[in-house]
Amino acid sequence: MAITMAAPREFAAAYLSDGTVKVAGFDVEPAWPESGGAAPIYASAFKEPMYDFVILPLSNFLIAIDKGLPLVGLPV
Predict the structure, then answer these.
(1) Rg of the chain over CA atoms, in angstroms?
(2) Which of 15, 25, 27, 59 has its CB 3.0 to 4.6 Å from that of 21, i.e. a possible disulfide?
(3) pTM value > 0.90
(4) Is the per-residue pLDDT at 73 higher than 90?
(5) Binning pLDDT at 50, 70 and 90, where does residue 65 land?
């Protein structure tokens, strides 16, 4: 089964994106827009998620939790 991951092309998500780190039982399909920046991805993560999981900056996660949004954080 495949799951989608929204993650910028940076060190924090590189091993998930290239398959070095596996998610047991799932194939990870990385996605990130070529243009437009991160704002649409992060905004949708809190309202109408387009992806199964999103790599978020800690500050965005803490703000969302403070606002009472139903998120689960996994420190990886």
Answers:
(1) 12
(2) 15
(3) no
(4) no
(5) very high
SS3 for the chain is CEEEEECCCCHHHHHHHCCCCCECCEEEEEECCCCCCCHHHHHHHHCCCCCCEECCCHHHHHHHHHCCCCCCCCCC
CA dist., res. 34 & res. 46, Å (int): 21
How do residues 32-58 score in pLDDT, each as one tens digit?
Answer: 877 767 788 888 888 888 889 888 888
Q: Are 62 and 46 in contact (CB under 8 A)?
A: no
Hey, where are the domains in the chain?
2-66
Which amino acid is located at 27 in the chain?
D
